[in-house]
């Protein structure tokens, strides 16, 4: 038997599978469908171990389901638009398209080296015109439905480069990552999708997602952030306008001692008195340079100043001061809040800092309202200092106060969401152009469907500076209005790349359709996705946006389902051993450390911490998949990734464990090779004709089938499934009856069980056993329950509760027969002798206890 050489056999079978079209999607409608999907990657040019993990997980599931008789859709594509490609192209003085497609070719080759059974005939790239044509078409569906609109919105503005920055491009000091300029907040007209119209179904339908981790559903629910409360209006002294606030605690309205506006609120300048104007303008200017995260951080002191204006509490008739503060954002709620320092922790701190009044209106049932508060009281209680509501429980008072507000015209009950409409405009080049023409007569006009796609021009100069690159290309920018023919301009914003990934799973069932976004019959047949796998970092945005798109397209009559993903698995990170200087925070390359058992920083001489952290270049702890495949083969890489930890847990990379999987595959290689080289192949026997040793081996075989099948159902426990494969391999190695048909059954079973995990070696050894068809077209082994039934059972013999030995008895024995075998056993004779047996306790299938 030749030595196990993974590189040779893996390349051979990858080529054979491609020629045979083994991974193409079955169109046999008589088979039950299974749609297995991994979140598609950004084509950076190189796979990392996180990629290997997610695609291997999905591949095992897809291969298993094919062997179990399903028609399986296991596609792959590329989330190819976005700022990183644009920046990389600028740095390399090339075009984003060229750079992106080179990366796609490279990563496709790397994926094929892993033996992933993707159906490449359905491959998509979001940057391809034949894909973004339909992204633009879907945008126009949103536009027709009134779900796409423009409004003024605040953006991060680089005053030197004269361009909009994403939040990720602003550093911790509020400076531009490229120019170093202090970033400003600036109002620009932006495109939005009205996701808030779907807040309630997005929240309620989380209950349908029984196959999703509770953690992810909770994260989405919190992001949507439903609040039930009241909208109340405070009249402004000396003006006709009113300040509207939303509160979840209307029961505390008698304790309002001030009102706070967002600095950017339109009423701010109107309520500001002349003597406060300079201070207010300076504060607004200062706050405008801060990001939302800076303004709302929990650990940051809350800052504000009075405007000089005053509002009237409609319930008390009393005037209260109007302030502005950094922690109130105009985009959230009404952009104004009522301050109740006695019963809100943030308001209490703010009032203490600024010497504002604190009025207690809720106390514990046995409390005293006259005792000054040392902290906000936020628990349930009884109302005080609240006019006709005094003595009422706070929970009941909420509804009573709302009722009074509605009767008197002060306000009304309201449900509010934390979720805001989705800003999709990007002042960048490398994205899908928004298919709108701006006409001076007609306004925003959709590009006719017959003119889609609006092609992204390639003759664009990219610098990363100035406004949108598309706005600088005169030949592309100026077009006649599609409605009236008047000279007009194209929209120069491109779409957020989350748009591309919010519908790609709907395209795969009909990826080559050039007449429609997809054939509804095909997409309705394959959807929803049966198993979706990806990182927890996408728990909110990508998954929420995908659910939103699905619901909108259902309501537009394009599909007949409302949720895109039935089951979701969020795999853990792959972590590498990391050497870190705890004093400087510097990461040290392992090759620079003289003694890894006692690691010392070669620069400072400090002792280094050894920790496991997510693999990254900056931490010098990455392992290149190509290096592992070159040394051990793709099957070993797959087996290690699956065996080291349950899929939802973080995985710590250890070279020794990789070696362990390589040794296991070598054992399987030798085991099957020795069997295949035997002179004669055994003939079949009936179950009744099997000897004791054969029955025990067959029990081991079917125990493995049972355990592996259970491990691959429900919660995927690939690590314990591989443990069962090892047990079966050991049982076959230890078996003495190599010429038995049961041994042959064991060999074939081992390879069919192994095939989804290590597809190349399983295929090679399957053919070595004389088969001409692929192991991956075989049926996955099915349990024979009769094989697990034992002919004999072990009975423990006890005398006065003390174990004296065991005996074997026929498995079908009843209680009386077991007792008879026990009485007649050599063990009982020896330990009881002539003593009188007063009582015999028989536990069928387990033990016999003699009381003497």
Protein architecture, described:
The protein is an alpha+beta fold. The protein contains 26 helices and 33 strands. Strands 8, 9, 10, 11, 12, 13 and 16 form a seven-stranded mixed beta sheet that branches. A four-stranded parallel beta sheet has the order 2-1-24-25, with helices on one face. Helix 1 (6-20) crosses helix 24, helix 2 packs across helix 19 and helix 23 packs antiparallel against helix 24. The chain is globular. The two termini are 62 Å apart. The mean pLDDT is 93.
From the structure above, extract its key features.
single chain, 852 residues, alpha+beta, seven-stranded mixed beta sheet, four-stranded parallel beta sheet
Task: Chart the SSEs and their pairings.
Blueprint: H1 6-20, E1 33-38, H2 49-67, E2 71-73, E3 77-78, H3 83-92, H4 96-113, E4 124-125, H5 129-144, E5 148-158, E6 163-165, E7 184-193, H6 199-204, H7 214-224, E8 226-236, E9 242-247, E10 258-261, H8 268-271, H9 277-288, H10 292-296, E11 304-312, E12 319-325, E13 336-339, H11 345-354, E14 362-363, E15 382-383, H12 394-408, E16 411-417, E17 422-423, E18 425-426, E19 436-439, E20 443-446, H13 474-477, E21 478-480, E22 487-490, E23 494-495, H14 497-500, H15 504-507, H16 520-526, E24 531-535, H17 541-555, E25 568-571, E26 574-580, E27 587-588, E28 609-614, H18 625-632, H19 634-643, E29 651-652, H20 655-676, H21 692-711, H22 718-734, H23 741-754, H24 759-768, E30 792-799, E31 802-810, H25 815-824, H26 826-832, E32 839-843, E33 847-851
Parallel strand pairs: 1-2, 1-24, 3-4, 10-12, 24-25, 26-29, 30-33
Antiparallel strand pairs: 5-6, 5-7, 7-17, 8-9, 8-11, 8-16, 10-13, 11-12, 14-15, 18-23, 19-20, 19-22, 21-22, 26-27, 26-28, 30-31, 32-33
């Amino acid at each position: 038997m030749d030595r196990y050489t993974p590189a040779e056999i893996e390349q051979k079978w990858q080529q054979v599978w491609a020629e045979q079209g083994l991974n193409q999607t079955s169109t046999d409608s008589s088979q039950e469908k299974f749609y297995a999907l991994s979140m598609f990657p950004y084509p950076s040019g190189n796979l990392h171990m996180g990629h290997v993990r997610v695609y291997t997980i999905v591949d095992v599931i897809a291969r298993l389901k094919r062997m179990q008789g399903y028609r399986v859709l296991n596609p792959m594509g590329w989330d190819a638009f976005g700022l990183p490609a644009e920046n990389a192209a600028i740095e390399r003085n090339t075009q984003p398209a060229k750079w992106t497609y080179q990366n796609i070719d490279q990563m496709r080759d790397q994926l094929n080296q892993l033996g992933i059974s993707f159906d490449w005939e359905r491959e998509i790239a979001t940057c391809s015109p034949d894909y973004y044509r339909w992204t633009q078409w879907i945008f126009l569906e949103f536009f027709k439905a009134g779900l796409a609109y423009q409004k003024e919105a605040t953006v991060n503005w680089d005053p030197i480069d004269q361009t909009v920055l994403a939040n990720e491009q602003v550093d911790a000091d509020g400076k531009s990552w490229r120019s170093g300029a202090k970033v400003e907040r600036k109002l620009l007209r932006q495109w939005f999708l009205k996701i808030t119209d779907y807040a309630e179904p997005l929240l309620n339908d989380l209950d349908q997602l029984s196959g999703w981790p509770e953690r992810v559903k909770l994260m989405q629910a919190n992001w949507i952030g439903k609040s039930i409360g009241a909208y109340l209006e405070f009249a402004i002294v000396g003006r006709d306008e009113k300040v509207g606030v939303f509160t979840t605690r209307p029961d505390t309205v008698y304790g309002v001692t001030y009102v706070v506006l967002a600095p950017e609120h339109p009423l701010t300048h109107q309520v500001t008195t002349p003597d406060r104007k300079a201070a207010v303008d300076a504060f607004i200017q200062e706050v405008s340079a801060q990001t939302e995260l800076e303004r709302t951080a929990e650990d940051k002191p809350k800052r504000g100043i009075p405007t000089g204006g005053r509002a009237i509490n409609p319930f008390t008739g009393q005037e209260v001061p109007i302030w502005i503060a950094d922690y109130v954002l105009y985009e959230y709620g009404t952009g104004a809040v009522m301050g109740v320092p006695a019963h809100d922790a943030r308001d209490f701190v703010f009032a203490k800092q600024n010497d504002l009044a604190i009025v207690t209106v809720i106390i514990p049932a046995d409390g005293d309202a006259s005792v000054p508060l040392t902290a906000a009281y936020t628990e349930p209680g009884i109302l005080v200092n609240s006019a006709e509501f005094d003595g009422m429980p706070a929970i009941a008072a909420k509804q009573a106060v709302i009722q009074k507000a509605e009767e008197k015209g002060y306000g009304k009950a309201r449900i509010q969401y934390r979720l805001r409409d989705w800003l999709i405009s990007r002042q960048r080049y490398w994205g899908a152009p928004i298919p709108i023409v701006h006409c001076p007569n007609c306004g925003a006009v959709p590009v006719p469907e017959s003119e889609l796609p609006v092609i992204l021009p390639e003759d664009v100069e990219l610098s990363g500076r100035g406004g949108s690159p598309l706005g600088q290309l005169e030949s592309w920018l100026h077009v006649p209005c599609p409605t009236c023919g008047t000279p007009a301009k194209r929209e120069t914003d491109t779409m957020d790349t989350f748009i591309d990934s919010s519908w790609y799973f709907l395209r795969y069932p009909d990826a080559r359709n050039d007449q429609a976004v997809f054939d509804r019959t095909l997409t309705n047949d394959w959807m929803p996705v049966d198993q979706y796998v990806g990182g927890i970092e996408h728990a909110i945005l990508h998954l929420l946006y995908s659910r939103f798109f699905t619901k909108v397209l259902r309501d537009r009559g394009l599909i007949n389902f409302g949720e895109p993903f039935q089951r979701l698995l969020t795999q853990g990170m792959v972590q590498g051993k990391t050497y870190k200087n705890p004093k400087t925070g510097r990461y040290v390359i392992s090759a620079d450390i003289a003694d890894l058992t006692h690691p010392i920083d070669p620069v400072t001489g400090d002792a280094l911490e050894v920790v496991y952290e997510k693999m990254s270049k900056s931490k010098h702890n990455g392992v290149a998949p190509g290096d592992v495949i070159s040394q051990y083969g793709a099957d070993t890489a797959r087996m290690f990734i699956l065996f080291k930890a349950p899929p939802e847990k973080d995985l710590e990379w250890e070279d020794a464990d990789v070696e362990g999987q390589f040794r296991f595959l070598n054992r399987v290689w030798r085991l099957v090779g020795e069997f295949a080289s035997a002179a004669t192949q055994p003939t079949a026997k009936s179950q009744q004709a099997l000897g004791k040793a054969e029955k025990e081996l067959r029990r081991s075989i079917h125990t493995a089938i049972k355990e592996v099948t259970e491990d691959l159902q429900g919660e995927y426990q690939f690590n314990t499934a591989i443990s069962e494969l090892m047990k079966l391999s050991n049982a076959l190695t230890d078996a003495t009856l190599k010429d038995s048909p049961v041994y042959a059954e064991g060999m074939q079973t081992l390879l069919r069980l192994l095939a989804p995990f290590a597809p190349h070696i399983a295929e090679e050894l399957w053919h070595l056993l004389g088969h001409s068809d692929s192991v991956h077209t075989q049926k996955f082994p099915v349990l024979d329950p009769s094989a697990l039934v034992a002919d004999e059972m072990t009975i423990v013999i006890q005398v006065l509760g003390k174990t004296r030995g065991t005996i074997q008895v026929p498995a079908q024995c009843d209680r009386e027969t077991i007792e008879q075998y026990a009485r007649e056993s050599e063990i009982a004779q020896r330990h009881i002798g002539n003593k009188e047996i007063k009582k015999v306790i028989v536990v069928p299938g387990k033990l016999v206890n003699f009381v003497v």
